[in-house]
Amino acid sequence: MPPSSNQPAIVLVRPQLGENIGKAARAMLNFGLTDLRLVAPRDGWPNPGAGPAAAGADIVLERARVFDSLAEAVADCAHVYATTVRKRGVTKPVVDAEQAALAIHREPGRSAYVFGPERSGLETDDVALARTILTVPINPDFGSLNLAQAVILCAYEWSKQASLVQPTVEELLPPAPQDELEGMIAQLEAMLAPTGFYHPVSRAAATRRTLRGLLTKPGWNHLEVRTLRGVLSHLAKGPRRPN
Prior knowledge:
The chain is of the alpha/beta class. The protein folds into 2 domains: 9-162, SPOUT methyltransferase, trefoil knot domain (Alpha/beta knot, 3-Layer(aba) Sandwich); 178-236, no CATH class. It is 42% helix and 11% strand. The protein contains 10 helices and 7 strands. The chain has helices spanning 18-30, 50-54, 58-63, 70-73, 97-106, 124-129, 147-162, 178-192, 204-216, 222-236; strands spanning 9-13, 36-39, 65-67, 79-83, 94-95, 111-115, 132-134. The protein has a 7-stranded parallel sheet. α5 packs across α7. The model is unreliable at 164-171 (pLDDT under 50).
């Protein structure tokens, strides 16, 4: 049986050790989470080191899915939280684990917690893809959490809020899933590139990140994304002569 739409996905980006994947799976199942997604695991998948470390959380490992990129892994997610202790120069809303858990329970659409590699954490481009930064008030002189610890913090808060949040009667259009948002961004970038918008080349990457940050802030719903893409398509046709 697939996980419910309210259950957040745990996305491990370029995890390095099978043992750490297993420990993360154990932390997930402790709090009822089973949707594990792996992005380009260093040693491939399945990994023989994951099973013993999972200590019985086999269902999580069996259901784990592997993706080539983070964008693919969160394509069906309307809320993507990048877990990091640093903002890394990306301007996005910042929440703690409790605030993120409350939002996941209250807002429609699938959500994902994204965790980076054990040594270095998420790269700037990984964080830029997310809509919100999730951080915790950790000791500034020793800001080192292992992967399973980071996962269990988020999973615990999600589990705790499950019994506290009352369903809302307000019917809202759910935010657009990530693949629709990516399509809108790609369409706009394709229109801007021939105009010289990304010159000089040395600033192109930073400009693209700034544009992405702008477009991921509002939390577009499906209708809004479709409408804006219609506007872009219309503009791409050029001016029309009046009848």
